[in-house]
Predict the structure of GDP-mannose 4,6-dehydratase.
Amino acid sequence: MKKALITGITGQDGSYLAELLLAKGYEVHGIIRRASTFNTSRIDHLYRDPHINGVKLILHYGDLADSVQMVKLLYDLQPDEIYNLGAQSHVRVSFDIPEYTGDVVGLGAVRILEAIREAGLVKKCRYYQASSSEMFGKVQEVPQVETTPFWPRSPYGCAKMYAHWLTVNYRESYHLHASSGILFNHESPRRGETFVTRKITRAATRIKLGLQDKLYMGNLDAQRDWGYAKEYVEMMWVMLQQDQPDDYVVATNETHTVKEFIQETFGLLNLDWEKYVNYDARYERPAEVELLIGNPAKAKKQLGWEPKVKFKELVKIMTESDLELAKREAQIANLPKP
Ligand code: NDP
Ligand code: GDR
């Protein structure tokens, strides 16, 4: 039985990847952070009582800022595959906490890569780095491909670029099977509620049910290549099954503005978006990434990548899911007071 370790298992991608690997028969280990509130809601449905034999999902406390724990874990577990998905992943927030973002997103990757060496796993273990289209940043070439020069526009993008090149460096220096997926934005009903897509579907469905009046937004002109997270995590696994490690762009090759996402969502709910959406400068970034559109030809050719869920279908999946959530919220709000 193969053993995988996932950092960021409680996040959107980590939860879908854990599901996928469990379905493939893996023993899945995940690093979770201690928090004063529960942070495992995305993986609770996968969790089984550890007292029962044959449990395949095992969680460990840890943090990408803690290298000693990382080395200890790798010694103990001897994983076949490591997926480094853990991150302070919010671009806007990275301007507020640049040092922390650099520590976790940039140095966090070094800590794992060094732990792989320290635990003597260079030959046995394969490594996946969650690289990002944010590394392309300022528009220089469209659509963006693996060879498009990077020009990150945020502390998050800079930290991801550092982790990306380290992954390449460990591949070249130590022959580690290390691959980077340069994934463009991917969304789902499990997307964090402060990312733009989920913020929109959550607000529009709440407005529909009278739970909210307004939606405050930043730059509506930014363009993004949005795909479906559940499909994207499959590519992470496929990359680690290749004979040779490499870097791949994973994208849909379609781009849409934030405004189009709003129009599509409110349209599905028969609402006039202009009545509800207001501008708030707080949501602007000091430097913006104006246009992302990825050409995934290499992943298509070598990994068999074919995105099935495109823009309209994605908006529908997220809106329907959030409408159900809003209905439950409305029911609770309407319960008679004791
Ligand atoms: P999320 O923000 O949903 O999840 C991030 C995960 O990282 C959470 O499990 C979080 O734990 C964990 N984490 C945060 N800080 C630390 C830390 N200090 N130590 C250990 N774990 C930590 O991100 P996504 O699932 O959307 O993205 C997964 C990865 O892919 C990230 O690295 C992201 O930067 C990258 N990426 C994402 C894209 C996207 O469109 N979604 C596109 C390209 C790259 P907790 O739950 O406790 O907060
Ligand atoms: P992004 O995603 O920065 O691309 O990073 P996000 O959804 O936060 O923003 C997308 C675009 O929408 C604009 N925008 C707003 N964004 C947010 N969050 N809130 C708003 O109110 C708002 N109004 C307009 C933004 O300016 C931006 O242009 C995501 C993250 O998942 C990263 O971790 C990942 O690496 C990249 O995608 C690829």
Observations:
- The radius of gyration is 20 Å.
